[in-house]
Structure formats: C-alpha cells, structure tokens
Amino acid sequence: MISTTLLKQQEKDVYISYLAIRYGLTIDQYFDENGIILFDGPSPYENEVIALGRNQGELNQLKSSPSNVDYYMQISIDNLSIDDYIFVASDGTSLLLDIVQISTSGYGNRLGNIWQVTKVGNDIGPVHVQFKDTINTQSLTLLRYGLCVSSNDDIDPGSAPVDYYEFTPSSPNLITATVNFNDGEYFSVCFHLSIPFSPSISLTPTVSITATSTTTLTSTPTTTSTTTLTSTPTTTSTTTLT
Question: Which of 120, 93, 126, 115 is nearest to 39 (CA)?
Fold first, then answer.
C-alpha cells in the first residue's frame, strides 16, 4: 500500500502502528485505527515487541515474530475478534545472557530474559508460544524445559505462584507451549539443568564420569587431587602436599 497524500500526525501514527503489528517491528507507541493508544510498554518491557491484532479494516494478524533479534520466537493464536490485540515485549536481556536459579522442584532454573504479555479486548483465547529448538545448545544439558508464567516479574514461586507449561515438538526444530495468559503476566523459559556439557563426559544409560584436576601453586606446596566416580558410586581421593 503506497500513500501519495500528506497524512496528519494521527493518520501517520495509525499507519505506522499497522505496519509494526504486521511485520513485527518495535515502535514507541501502538495505535488502533481510531488513533487510540493500544500499547505503550512500561520500562523495561518495551523491547522486541511482537503483536497480534484485528481491526475493522484489513488487519487480521494471527501470527508474528520479532524482527532483528538473535533468536527465533513466534506467537500465534487461532482467531481474534475485531478490536482484540495481544502484545508481547521483552525486558531487553539477551536470550542466553544469564541463567537464574528459582526455588522450585522440577524446574530449577530459567533464562535471564523475561517477556510481559498485554491483552487488549475481551475473551482472547490461548496463545501458542514457539521457539526454535536450539535454546538448549549453549554448553548445557537440559532434561526438560517449558514456559514458566507468573504475575510477578521475578518468576519465582517464592514471590508469587508460577505455572509451568511443557514444550512439545510442533515441527522439525520447533517447540511450542500453549498458554491462556492473563493480562500483564510475565513468562520465561524454565528448565531443569542436568550437568555442564564437557567432551570428557559421556551421557549413556550407565554413566561413568572421571574428573581429574591438578593445581600447582608457584610458592609451593603443590596439590594434586584425583577423584573417580562410578555408577556404584565409588570415590577415591589422594592428596599430596610437599
């Protein structure tokens, strides 16, 4: 669509908002077709905004991904009523910048990145949140992972209840969790961390791990420690001080 006429500021706002929702672009404010503000993300939840929405005109966006990010994420919904919108915005943390421990069983960690969900409208149904299945490849071995959702932005059950939604494979290299979010809720990717990945560790049904560590101090003494763990398990430790 190409405009050959001069637009008033409100018309510009409406047109730019349409393009941002349509193509997963982040702008300062999002307006509906009548020029009313739909979303003005509170700091820090104003980054990497993705939106779904439907208006009286030609906008009926049921699937979207953020543009210009270093990870793949997509949100989608089966249908929307007219004037219904969903905005998902990140706190701006790099997806794999940090791992945060949380006090719960089953999932003991989450990624540092947190997203907030804003819903505009009534009776908006469940949202499908999809990631590319590479979020577990950063030198970590994960036994299970999913979305953790909370009304508190630290997403820790010590502060507020947390709901968990297991990821399930949806297509090659893609995993999906489906959540009926409440307006204003937060979510992140939670997981149970098994052990750090190392070339010397073989993950087989019968696990045998041998770790050898040698530390030499220039001002003597010298400490040598050898520890052998087997599936029995048996531990042998020898320390020599000189």
Answer: 120
User: From the CB of residue 192, how many other CB atoms can be counted at a distance below 10 Å?
Assistant: 16
For residues 59 and 76, is the Cβ–Cβ distance under 8 A?
no
List CB contacts of 230: < 8 A, sequence separation 6 or more: 208
pLDDT at 103: 62
Asked whether the beta carbons of 123 and 80 are under 8 A apart, the reply is no
Residue 225 pLDDT > 50: no
Q: How many angstroms separate the CA atoms of 123 and 236, rounded?
A: 62
CA atoms within a 13 Å half-sphere pointing along the CA-CB vector of 225: 8
Give me the residue label for tokens 């036994």. 143
- Shortest CA distance to 113 belongs to which of 48, 158, 182? 48
Both tokens of 76, joined, read 């989608």
Note the pLDDT of residue 112. 82
CA pair distance 76, 85, nearest whole angstrom: 12
* Rounded CA separation 55/83 (Å): 5
How much is the pTM?
0.73
In tens, the pLDDT along 75-119 reads 999 999 999 999 999 998 876 556 777 765 567 778 888 999 999
